[in-house]
Write a structure and sequence with these properties.
Number of helices of chain B: 21
Order of helices and strands of chain A: HHHEHEEEEEHHEHEEEE
Shape of chain B: globular
Strand content of chain A: 15-25%
Oligomer: heterodimer
Structural class of chain B: alpha/beta
CATH architecture of the largest domain in chain A: 3-Layer(aba) Sandwich
Largest sheet of chain B: 6 strands, parallel
Helix content of chain A: 25-40%
Number of helices of chain A: 7
Structural class of chain A: alpha/beta
Largest sheet of chain A: 6 strands, parallel
Largest interface: A-B, 72 and 90 residues
Number of domains of chain B: 3
Helix content of chain B: 40-55%
Distance between the termini of chain A: 82 Å
Radius of gyration of chain A: 24 Å
Shape of chain A: globular
CATH topology of the largest domain in chain B: Rossmann fold
Strand content of chain B: 5-15%
CATH superfamily of the largest domain in chain A: NagB/RpiA/CoA transferase-like
CATH class of the largest domain in chain B: Alpha Beta
CATH superfamily of the largest domain in chain B: NagB/RpiA/CoA transferase-like
Strand order of the largest sheet of chain A: 1-11-7-4-2-3
Chain lengths: 212, 458
Amino acid sequence: MTFHVSRFKLRHYQNNSNMNTREKILEAVLKNQPPTTALPDITMFKGNSIDLIQKYMDIFKTIGGSSFLVDDIAAVKILISENFDTAKRIVTTLPELSDRFELISAAANPRSYDDIELAIIKAHFSVAENGAVWLAEEVMGQRIIPYICQHLAVIVHAESIVPTLHEAYEKIGAGDYDFGAFISGPSKTADIEQALVLGAHGPLTMTVFILK
Amino acid sequence: MSQTKTKDHAALAAAFIKDEERVDWHDGALWYIREKRDIAAKQIPEWEELREAASMIKSNVISNLHEYLLQFEANLKKNGVMVHWADNAQEHNEIVYSILKAKEISQMVKSKSMLTEECHLNEYLEEHGIEVINSDLGEYIQQIDNEPPSHIVLPCIHKRKEEIGELFHEHLGTEKGLSDPTLLTRVARKHLRNIFLTRRGALTGVNFAVAETGEYVVCTNEGNADMGAHLSEVQIASMGLEKLIPQKKHLGIFLRLLARSATGQPITIYSSHYKKPREGQEMHLILVDGGRTRQLGRPDFRESLKCIKCGACMNTCPVYRKSGGLSYHNTISGPIGAILAPNLDMEKHADLPYASTLCGSCSNVCPVKINIHEQLYKWRQVIVKEGYAANTKALGMKTMAWTLSSPGKFTTAGKAGRWFLHNIPFVVNNKFNPWYKQRDMPEGPRESFAEWFIKNKE
């Protein structure tokens, strides 16, 4: 009799899988996890703040990006017209560039941005040790923008550059974003015989304008 | 998947090393990446402290996993992400299928995820009428060649560009003989862009999941995970339970270590932090056990759950470099694969802990300081004890145990060995002696130490 009951229970258990799988996994974790160990203190990890602009520019170059140190937005406009094909579709999130380029609409279908040649957006800050810029969704216009464009241009304030990722996460803090990303150069692959190719699925180039 | 017994590592490696030129090239390609890792690591003066901190954070995760899982789940729900739990591969695959089916999605694009390889998700979905395309270039190449990835970071590192050109000619209609990596990549870029733009369902793996905030981080160089996810209506992320980290600030430690250990880059091009679905999008996350709780219960092997899948242990391993990832017949190959696989199926993977020289290089480069070579050694003992050792090894061990059990037997065996080596060497120098393969037997000494000692003690 007990045999039948347990068989029934077992089947019931298996059929009503999701809730019970959760319980089963959590129970096994609790049973098998070792006695608790403490988290390390990581406050001593800090970078060096000397010469951050130069460091950033040097690293960014080694990962295949190009950067310009500029005085103002007017200088950015000139460099863009010199370096990109402005006859093609160029989008931006910056109101100060909306006289020349299309403003990104948060409501548009993300697929409608497939044909953009260049996206110009503003980063919250950048990281000297690895060339990355930090972008939360609100400065991307849409999540897909920095990935789908053929070329990506990012504007960042010189004084916002931090030495390492430790300062970066300090700056992000709790971060009230729905999506955010560190982006550090043009998309790349070395999957074919370790030969580096810039422009895998994302942008072919990335340019950073550092505003003095 | 076929249930027939696969060949073991030694047999598969024997096939790989037949092409000596390829072995040398493969060996060199991986060593080059190992060197890039060294250069990157040396630029960080606090590198060793970072490894230690990462290892300690992961120890804390392993020892508080229950609490972190609950915290992560609660935060995911708060963020509007649907949470699923899967005990094994079958349950995982069923969940993915049910999510897609509810939305009537019959085509999905997938970014690199070793977990879904481990679950054989593609095969399962295809059997159920859903087409899956791998979007990481290396994984795409492996998929069209009907082969699993041979390396967790560099899926087709074992292939020559001419072979890839041939595959592209066959599947993408490129000109015969085209093998230039840039041109081939451009062709794949164009082809896969169309896939991204037309797929309503996208699945990604997870590199790090933050318990404190419910966000998860996906790292790629190609941008493929984001292209798929941000253009999809339904986004699914699959992760093993061990991918959790406690707090967001810990990402600073792990992201500094990951790419430098993997390829020598200071960070992957994209480190995307997914927290909430896009307006109008559905976001699902599947937490998969798949033997991880069992490994958690093995004190000698639970440290393997700290792995952040950088592949550094493979790039440095002399056995991996010279035998190729596919010879490990397991999704995760190399030293880390050899300590993870026996937990999943001890009989099937009994050979893998032996695919090592125990040199310890893997442990030295591991960014979370897993004692990989010690675990390889310990698995050997477990495997012999449980009766899963290969017959030749078991026989050898028994003979050795018998020989070493008394001084008399040892002395006789030594004499016999020396006599054979000197007088009729072909008895040992033949193909029946596995040690003789690609080696010459030593010239035996004239006498043993014991014999010399007796003669000279006066």
